[in-house]
Design brief:
By secondary structure, this protein is α/β, with parallel strands linked by helices. The protein has one domain (18-176): Rossmann fold, CATH 3.40.50. The chain has helices at residues 6-13, 28-40, 55-65, 90-96, 109-116, 127-138, 143-153, 156-163, 167-176, and strands at residues 21-25, 46-49, 75-80, 99-103. It has a four-stranded parallel sheet, sandwiched between helices. It is globular and about 40 Å long. The termini are far apart.
Length: 178
């Protein structure tokens, strides 16, 4: 006879899976920022790093990382910078594999973060300028230090105020709230 009674098996089958979201950030900075948002919004989302490169290489890395498990996610999202125009087949590849693309309006995540802080308008000329300005403003030296500084500059109340004027941030937070 089975170790479990039929009634116990039936109870296990009655459980409904909770909504799940996969968000793949283009690089390490995106991953750290997304994990900060995940903590604030108490999300069950899976956050991972696409390890930079072109939009196609980020998608390929995401597909390689979740080849068989990709159907366990209700939503799969790539968070990409707005600095590179994806190749023609990219949108079709994303659709085929079930990925939605969220693109920042900035050339890099650091410019996006400066914009959220109200510091990017007309004050930076390149991604290198954004990185330098964000590091100076937040006072971090490495990713671990950056992660520790995020709560000081991106509190839940600051994010809630800012999301009404930034559609990309709003879209990310809505995904995390699922």
């Amino acid at each position: 006879m089975s170790r479990f009674s039929n009634s116990r098996r039936a109870k296990r089958l009655e459980r409904f899976p909770q909504s799940s979201v996969l968000i793949v950030g283009e690089g390490q900075t995106e991953e750290v920022f997304l994990k900060h948002l995940k903590r604030i919004y108490e999300s069950r989302a899976t956050i991972t790093n696409g390890y930079g490169g072109s939009p196609s290489s980020v998608l390929q890395k995401a597909k390689n990382q979740f080849p068989k498990n990709s159907n366990i996610f209700d939503d799969k999202v790539l968070l990409l910078d707005g600095d590179v125009t994806p190749p023609a087949r990219f949108d079709a590849d994303c659709q085929t594999h079930g990925y939605e693309v969220v693109t920042t309006d900035s050339v890099c995540i650091e410019c996006f973060l400066l914009d959220l802080l109200g510091l990017a308008k007309g004050t930076v000329n390149s991604c290198a300028d954004c990185k330098r300005k964000l590091k100076n403003h937040m006072g971090y030296t490495n990713m671990s230090n950056f992660s520790q500084k995020l709560p000081l500059f991106f509190s839940k109340s600051k994010l809630e105020t800012t999301r009404s004027s930034n559609s990309t941030l709003d879209k990310i937070i809505k995904l995390l709230e699922k």
